[in-house]
Amino acid sequence: MADPTDRPEPRRVADTHCHTGEGPLYHPDEGVVYFLDIPEADLYRYDPADGSHERVLDAEGAVGGFTIQDSGDLLLFCDGGRIQPWNRDDGLGDPVVESIDGEGNSRFNDVIADPRGRVFCGTMPTPDGEPGTLYRLDTDGSLSVAVEDARLSNGLGFTPDRRHVYFTETEAGRISRYRYDQATGDLSDREPFLDASDLTGHPDGMTVDAEGHVWAAFWDGGRIASYDPEGTERQRVEFPAKKVSAVTFGGPDYDTAYVTTALGPGEGPASTREEEGDGAGALFAVDLGVGGVPEFRSRIETR
Ligand SMILES: O=C1O[C@H](CO)[C@H](O)[C@H]1O
């Protein structure tokens, strides 16, 4: 029986009250963790060196996800399918993509850069109930469909050998694993990895640790949990907040996990911490006894 004193204890490190805290990402050039409040289109920056955090962008609409470009700029994936660069000195740059489908009726959600600088970027279902889509953004700025009829496109991650991609569909309550062709960016041969239909909560954001285990965040599940490559749960860490939305590793040695939470409910007015749990909407840090690896950087051409 593991000694309870060994149990990882989440620490609230940025006491934001995010409606939908999401998309944490460690920026190694700056030594900070950026994260979003999606519907507020707010971008936050937490500095572990002094424990400070600040809102560095309050944009229009919604920002669903972002990657870090080779240049160090962030590439924001927004509502209506707009994709545009941002950095602290120049602010928002010219959009790489203005909208996904012309009507702008869906927003991007979770995204990930691949080893060749492309970005897999998924969308939410549309207000009229159309399912989302997982797109692939190539470095020339062209978008193509990677997976259609995605039931709330969410967390993504690569296996350590870069031969497979994990893909989360929150409304389907599942994480799948696709064969990934690094040369072309193509995904194929979907196989089930985790069926979460009988679990408490819904799989949301995810990351892959240095041992190749998947860490999934559970919305309305109040936890992150790790799964070995065979899909067997290995560890779980409970949070006081119910809506645990995303997890990533950061720090110079990638030995700290950063976890976002939400006041929810995803769309519509935010709830309260009395409803959603202590610290809901804040960024947490936790030492899991295992580290992560740096995320790939996007290399999307910008103007
Ligand atoms: O990633 C997300 O999780 C929630 C819904 O499950 C939120 O709405 C979405 O952005």
Layout of helices and strands:
Blueprint: E1 11-14, E2 21-27, E3 32-37, E4 42-47, E5 52-58, E6 63-68, E7 74-78, E8 83-87, E9 91-92, E10 108-113, E11 119-123, E12 132-137, E13 143-150, E14 153-158, E15 164-169, E16 174-180, E17 187-195, E18 202-208, E19 214-219, E20 223-227, E21 233-238, E22 243-250, E23 256-262, H1 273-276, E24 283-286
Antiparallel strand pairs: 1-24, 2-3, 3-4, 4-5, 6-7, 7-8, 8-9, 10-11, 11-12, 12-13, 14-15, 15-16, 16-17, 18-19, 19-20, 20-21, 22-23, 23-24
This protein binds the ligand O=C1O[C@H](CO)[C@H](O)[C@H]1O.
The ligand O=C1O[C@H](CO)[C@H](O)[C@H]1O is lined by residues 20, 22, 38, 109-110, 154, 170, 202, 204, 219, 245, 266.
Biased composition (Basic and acidic residues): 1-20
Family: Belongs to the SMP-30/CGR1 family.
InterPro entries: 6-blade_b-propeller_TolB-like (IPR011042), SGL (IPR013658), SMP-30 (IPR005511)
Low-confidence stretches: none
Distance between the termini: 57 Å
The largest pleated sheet is described as: 4 strands, antiparallel
Here the CATH topology equals Neuraminidase
Estimated share of beta-strand residues: over 45%
Into which percent range does the helicity of residues fall?
under 10%
Determine Rg (CA atoms, Å): 17 Å
Strand order of the largest sheet: 1-24-23-22
Unique bound compounds:
ligand LCVJW4HZ
Count of DSSP E strands?
A: 24
Q: What overall form do the CA principal axes indicate?
A: globular
Order of helices and strands: EEEEEEEEEEEEEEEEEEEEEEEHE
